[in-house]
Known about the structure:
Blueprint: E1 8-13, E2 17-21, E3 29-32, H1 35-55, E4 76-78
Antiparallel strand pairs: 1-2, 1-4, 2-3
Amino acid sequence: xxxxxxxxxxxxxxxxxxxxxxxxxxxxxxxxxxxxxxxxxxxxxxxxxxxxxxxxxxxxxxxxxxxxxxxxxxxxxxx
Length: 79
């Protein structure tokens, strides 16, 4: 079994909450009141998107290595 890891780019703060985007899956985003919730919603969003792609009969995108992903100042890249 092969494990694919898609990078998420998080931004936000404790007051406003956090959002994440995915360079390899540009049609989705995730949000959470805190980082723990963001990680949970991000994983769910990726799983749903990959299932949608598979259901459409398309191939999953190849994940970009985290070292090749750039993010805005203050942003956090996570897997």
